């Protein structure tokens, strides 16, 4: 029940998986997404824990009625937008060309 | 107190329920027309379930935000900010940051490896039948809780916006919403549903943006002034409990005790990890032609959802400042009434009508998205794979899913009538907790951990699902508290209303333990094929030709 009928055999997939091009793609992907996920989850966790336990700190006024809690909260928005932007640039430059090269070779070679 | 007295106090007639119905009727007429036009081709399974994978990234991103921004987030978060202040804002941050999990870890690989449902990806290299059954079970559970939340919300909204307070009247309107939803999904399939979501998202985000500008303009574009005015309005509340709140800092809703603080952390965990496990969100990634378009759609969704939650911040504090917490809490919908009352305050009957219609459209679109997801999962995973062992044509699958849509529609009408009094935010949080515990660990492991096997998946999915539901049943959300579902009995022994802090780590651990204590190492050839397909898109499902 493979989604589309490709004539690529299991042996060929094993060979592709072991190829340096694929390993390069795999490790670039993992070296980006895992640390970045850890980073934003820790930053979010820090925010949530401050929100739960550090009320006075979060209530410190910075400018007018705008306080630390609001700024850190808005900081979560900024970091989310920023990480999205950085990831898309990374994926377009580093992942897409490598994935496409492997895909073309496999599908072209099998046809 | 009801709507009439509030409006009378403002010196206006009670003519607006008619305006609300008229504007909503216009929305229904326009969207039905578009759905019928868009759905000329709905013959094949790929067309019915995934709109022929023909939507662009931006279109799908708008539809995702339409699917995701439910009435609970629009009315619920604006209301929570108006009444509790900062603690309402914490919800929206969890709902937004969660999209990074989907963007970085899930969306693209899932699009490359799957066909119609989450179970396609899981069963690629795990044992088909047990894994599909488990994945379909968790999918149906999440959809059911989420559907309940939306239908319960519809009841409350009716009371507020159409001034229908009788039980029979509310039941009638819930039935109308349910029947409309069935019509949209049956006629339009995924394509029609997607268009409804796109139109709704544009109206919702546009409406919220307009109100935000309006509120800011009233305060000379100075956000600090809004905050000050909101705090002044809350402090002058006639209720001592409300007046004592510092709405500009966290703690008004969750700060009372260590238990409530841990409960809050538990909720935050479920929100951030739940999104990427929501089946109706996952299914949207199959409506685009490539993984790259799936990435673009998440980027669009993040921008739109982020902007929308920034608007709700202004709307919530604006409602506190301009309408006041006493008027909001006295209105028929309670805190859910904040955004509609603010709309009335700003733009009178017309703006209230528009915002009410948008809120109804929101419920309709989210319910349609949930229903088509649940029906697809039932037809494709349970009926075709588990019951009929793949001896079913795709047109048969579409037929079964159409029947499922009708059954689900009727069931959700019934449940919505029964659940009319339930707390919407609680039901949504429950859906997120189930998605985070039962779906996300298995999705992550199966995408990134080659050793992961069938036993690990089953332990993680059933363990996550059962632990979440059992802990909820024995929590103060169900019994033993004044605000509980069953306030008159007390069998609660688990102190937290949000079980995520226990059930999510448990499901992650069960996935590891189950995998390691099973001798099944997996087939290296299939594992290699899966990984190569995930990362490169080789052999991924293409868009259907036009």
Give an overview of the whole structure:
The complex is a heterodimer of chains A (111) and B (546). With 111 residues, chain A is mainly alpha-helical. Chain A has one domain (11-110). Chain A is 81% helix and 5% strand. Chain A is built from four helices and two strands; from the N terminus they run H-H-H-E-E-H. Chain A has a two-stranded antiparallel ribbon with strand order 1-2. In chain A, a hairpin with a 2-residue loop joins strand 1 (61-63) and strand 2 (66-67). The longest helix of chain A is centred in the last third of the chain and has 43 residues, at 68-110. Chain A is elongated and about 65 Å long. By secondary structure, chain B is mainly alpha-helical. Chain B has one domain (19-536): Sodium/glucose cotransporter (Up-down Bundle), CATH 1.20.1730.10. Chain B has helices spanning 3-9, 16-38, 45-50, 57-68, 71-84, 86-113, 118-122, 128-161, 167-218, 223-235, 240-243, 258-274, 279-284, 291-322, 325-330, 338-387, 394-418, 424-448, 454-473, 500-516, 524-536. The relative contact order of chain B is 0.18. In chain B, helix 8 (128-161) runs parallel beside helix 19 and helix 10 packs across helix 14. Chain B is built from 21 helices and no strands. The chains are: A mainly alpha (111), B mainly alpha (546). The interface between A and B is large, with 58 and 64 residues.
